[in-house]
Amino acid sequence: MYIPKTSSNYPGHFIGRDVVFVFGAGASYADGAPLQADILPLIMSDELPDIRKSKIGQTVTEFIAENFAWDVNARIYPTLETVFGFLDYFISQDEHLNAQYPNARIRAIKEGLIKLIHYVISVKSNQQGKTYRSFWEAVCRYNPNIAILTLNYDTLLEDAFSNIHPGPGYVDYCIHLMNYDLTEKKQMHRYPKPEAVKIMKGHGSLNWKYCHCCKQVLLTPRDTKIDLFEEHNGEDPGSSAKYYCPIDASEFETLIIPPSHIKKISHLVISQILSEAMREIRSCKKVLFVGYSFPDADVHFKALFKKSLSRGQQVIVINNTKSKTLKYNYLALTSNVQFIKLSFADFLGNQCLVKEILTGTGSTRSNG
């Protein structure tokens, strides 16, 4: 089990990273996590029968069926950005869609859709995390002075870390976690100089539960499986009987920023993470992007990097896509960018290249 660290001023914390990694969906895809474009088709198809059988699945799919159109044979589906954007419009305007879908039910359907995304990712992902495990082995072998900004909701990265560091290894989420203060103190006493690895989850995490009353986060590190048939409260298909705030008894909600053009990045927790990410990027030697294409809905991340990158910093992009748009998305940030057309797994298989990037020896050359 990985033990999270909740304060930046902690023994083992590095000042000035050699490398800041930025992980997009392509990084987790290497360990089986579905791409964003594949999630809604999986929810709406019969491939995962428990979705159709469950109340939460029936409620969410019925809403999508009544408000969107698609063609299974042509594999034309609405995007998650479109569905969440539609839901977020009514939520942000505090409007009802109609008598069948009042605002409260729309909010519940949004949380239900988030839960279905959690279910799809947990079912489809390879929990052994072989690619991420190889990543952590390389970090331990060559240079642990790194930080990670990941835009993925899944916990494959942290789970792989726990297998490599079963003892004095800490994940620093850069946020306060209400249920780990005591555990952290015990771990500090046992390991005077634990190794802290900073993982900044810019879109939240499927194992973070947020209380809207006391505004604190509960970490559920073992919550990698979702039971779609558990008891729910009333009409709410997204509610869970498992997690209630121990301080004020309010029901927790999964803390993720879903793929919508109306992203609430002003959220107290997310804002804190993004501020920390800016500090890390500004002080590091190089930034390495893995499997990230800068989708249109992520304009806030383009702004973050545009503000944070300095002229002399080295930017490396690991991506095996043939899209020319990807190249210009990065060139819009900085001219000092190198492209390496490799998948994440193939990159990690090239130990000479990995060592060169992590240690700064030699000169990385673009093969793009």
From TrEMBL:
Pfam families found in the cross-reference section: SIR2_2
SUPFAM superfamilies to which the protein is assigned, alphabetical = DHS-like NAD/FAD-binding domain
UniProt-listed InterPro entries: DHS-like_NAD/FAD-binding_dom
Q: Which domain of life is it from?
A: Bacteria
Name of the molecule in the record: Uncharacterized protein
